């Protein structure tokens, strides 16, 4: 039986999605469908992802593109589901960590328990094509197609479609399309990305500016909520005896979604605004300090995200 995602689902599972740039450099040479920057989103419990969306799972260092006419979702649990209003059948995505090729092969050779009383049995042997493993299963008029990919960090992703045997060709094509769209982060970038999410999720970032700069650009606070939202406030301040235009109007608020991306080994905070457009900010760590665009930023628990 296929194993489920072994790492606990992060509150936002982050992750995620919400993004705006091409992410996760491919490890394999397999081509993947093009997606626009606005189509990158981190995986979060309870959200749905439309066709063409690149869904990213930062804690597992993997992403994939939802096939045409299908929708992806993560209910409470650890298995990602795929459903379609056009094609009958059900798809599932299983993310595995700390797994070897031999252990993955052993799982794929077992009968696949889809639900209570519904078991599909292997048909023939597992087909091995480098890091890709392909399995076929059947029971009566039902079939299952599984394509698994081994990642670079003792991780793996399994795509499985189950339904009527008349749809076998479609299921095979869908699983192969998902496999071709898959991108893995290398082990080092994956570890760095995971550390940034652990440190900043649910927190408020506030760049530490001197009085002259703060007077001209305002005091900024960025709240990074665990559900993938961000709230940015900018409050103008004045020096004693001098008012600043707009001070009495209160803080400026901006909202949208956020994610952290790895680009050339460097981390970047991506803020996608609800009004359109996106901002990118460099993230660095110096000793125990966080630098945002080169400026030291305080990191505190956000009260706005509660």
What are the key terms here?
single chain; 306 residues; mainly beta; Protein Transport Mog1p, Chain A; Lipocalin; ten-stranded antiparallel sheet; eight-stranded antiparallel beta barrel; 4 helices; 23 strands; elongated; disordered N terminus
CATH class of the largest domain: Alpha Beta
How many whole angstroms does the radius of gyration measure? Answer: 22 Å
Q: Which architecture of the largest domain per CATH? A: 3-Layer(aba) Sandwich
The number of E-state strands comes to 23
How much of the sequence is in beta strands? 35-45%
Counting H and I runs of at least 4 residues, what is the number of helices?
A: 4
- Overall mean pLDDT score? 81
Query: Under CATH, the topology of the largest domain is which?
Result: Protein Transport Mog1p, Chain A
Gross morphology is elongated
Structural class: mainly beta
């Amino acid at each position: 039986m296929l194993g489920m995602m072994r790492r606990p689902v992060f509150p936002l599972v982050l992750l995620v999605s919400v993004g705006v740039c091409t992410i996760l450099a491919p490890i394999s040479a397999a081509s993947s469908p093009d997606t626009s920057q606005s189509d990158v989103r981190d995986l979060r419990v309870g959200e749905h992802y439309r066709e063409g969306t690149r869904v990213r799972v930062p804690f597992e260092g993997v992403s994939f593109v939802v096939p045409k006419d299908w929708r992806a979702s993560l209910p409470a649990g650890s298995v990602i589901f795929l459903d379609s209003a056009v094609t009958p059948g059900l798809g599932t995505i299983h993310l595995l960590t700390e797994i070897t090729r031999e252990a993955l092969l052993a799982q794929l050779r077992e009968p696949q328990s889809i639900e209570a009383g519904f078991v599909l049995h292997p048909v023939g042997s597992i087909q091995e094509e480098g890091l890709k493993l392909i399995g076929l299963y059947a029971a009566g008029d039902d079939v299952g197609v599984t394509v698994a990919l081994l990642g670079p960090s003792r991780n793996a992703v399994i795509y499985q479609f189950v339904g009527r045997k008349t749809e076998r060709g479609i299921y095979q094509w869908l699983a192969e399309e998902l496999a071709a769209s898959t991108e893995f982060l290398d082990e080092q970038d994956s570890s760095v990305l995971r550390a940034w999410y652990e440190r900043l999720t649910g927190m408020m970032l506030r760049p530490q500016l001197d009085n002259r700069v703060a007077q001209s650009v305002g005091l900024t606070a960025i709240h990074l909520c665990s559900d993938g939202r961000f709230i940015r406030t900018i409050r103008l301040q004045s020096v004693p005896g001098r008012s600043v235009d707009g001070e009495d109007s209160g803080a400026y608020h901006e909202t949208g979604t956020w994610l952290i991306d790895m680009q050339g080994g460097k981390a970047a905070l991506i803020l996608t605004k609800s009004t359109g457009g996106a901002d990118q900010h460099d993230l660095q760590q110096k000793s125990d300090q966080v630098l945002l665009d080169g400026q030291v930023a305080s990191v505190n628990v956000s009260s706005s995200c509660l």
